[in-house]
Amino acid sequence: MVKLGIMSFAHMHAYSYAACVNAMPDVELTAVWGYNLRRAKQAAQQFNARFVKDVNEFLALDLDGVIICAENTRHHALVELAASAGKWILCEKPLAPESSEAKRIVKICERERVGLGTAFPCRFAPSLMAARDQLQAGDFGDIYAVTATNHGQFPGGWFAVPEWSGGGAVMDHTVHVADLLRWMLGREFTSVYCEGGNQLHQGEIDVDDLGSLHLEMEGGIQVQHLASWSRCRSFPTWGDVTLEFIGSKGVLNVDAFNQKLTVYSDAARKAEWAPFGDNPDFGLVREFVTSIQEARDPSPNGIDGLRATEITVAAEKSMRTHRVVKL
Fold first, then answer.
1. What pLDDT sits at residue 293?
2. pTM > 0.70: yes or no
3. Which ranges constitute the DSSP H helices of the chain?
């Protein structure tokens, strides 16, 4: 039996990860800790886990690994505590809001010889896995260009507070697309140009909510990416992840979350999309559990988290300076 703990339910993904853990017969959600004691206690009750008030008491438990879902700027401190306690770690994205912090997180886990994973569940979406297989097999030839979107609803709360988030929609959503393209194409990014700002929630928040990015990858692959908190509250789901690859042998279009049914809900008083098929979050947590059992780094790993952070940090620098930033 693999025993896991969750450190903070500040990020909404924590609730999905907890449900995934409870759905696995060989895994136990043993304990929950968080800075917000009330929220952590409620989550522990919801998922039938032990609530632990003190972080040191929490890390002294017989836990094989922890999932960190705290605010972005708190990742580094929690990773250091968990790694020093010898726990395998799955950290919510972005790994850190600054490249230097992300590097320290990777070094800490290397020093303590614990596995470090970054929470990029999109890698476990069936459509993206199938698309990667086709791209890697050369079915679409040489890839010349990619267009990508990651639009979502404004999450509110600490996401709009720079001291906790470290950035806005560009950081929140670009990390997913950056990681997917590195993974699917096997290339690194070489430059970033970004224009954006607070255009959709003017006067309401202090971080960017829209970014238009032009990136280049090794081999001259041109990438256009739109990241935003542009989905209204009445939209059927939180957002999207779409990719279009233009290659020498054809064009590949991927809608990562198109496994859905349209439900006209009187209870919700709106149309909703009900997902069916595979759950990417389940795949992510299952991989984390397997990495513990096999005593290896999870995939995506800490280096993947670091590279995605470097790209978003470059995008934010470009947004401020209106210049291309080399990587």
1. 98
2. yes
3. 13-22, 37-46, 55-59, 75-84, 99-112, 126-136, 162-165, 169-185, 280-293, 302-321
Greater confidence (99 vs 238) lies with 99
DSSP 23-83: T-TTEEEEEEE-SSHHHHHHHHHHTT-EE-S-HHHHHTSS-SEEEE-S-GGGHHHHHHHHH
* Cβ neighbour number for residue 85 with a 10 Å cutoff: 17
Average pLDDT over residues 47-68: 98
**Is 133 found in the same domain as 94?**
no
Q: What is the CATH number of the domain that holds 90?
A: 3.40.50.720
Whether the pLDDT of residue 325 is over 90: the answer is yes
Q: What are phi and psi of 162, to 5 degrees?
A: -55, -35
Kindly list the strands in the beta sheet with 325-326, ordered across the sheet, starting from the edge strand earlier in the chain: 250-255, 242-247, 143-153, 221-231, 210-217, 189-197, 325-326
> Is 128 in the same domain as 269?
yes
| CA atoms of 270 and 325, how far apart (whole Å) | 43
- 261 and 321 fall within a common domain: yes
Rounded CA-CA distance 162/165 in Å is: 5
60 and 186 share one domain: no
Containing domain of residue 39, as a range?
Answer: 2-122+281-300
Domain count, the chain: 2
Q: What is the pLDDT of residues 119-157, one digit of tens each?
A: 999 999 999 999 999 999 999 999 999 999 999 999 999
Residues 165 and 22 placed together within one structural domain of the fold: no
Give tens-digit pLDDT for 182-234: 999 999 999 999 999 999 998 889 999 999 999 999 999 999 999 999 998 88
Quickly count helices (H) and strands (E) in the chain: 10, 15
Residues 190 and 250 in one domain: yes
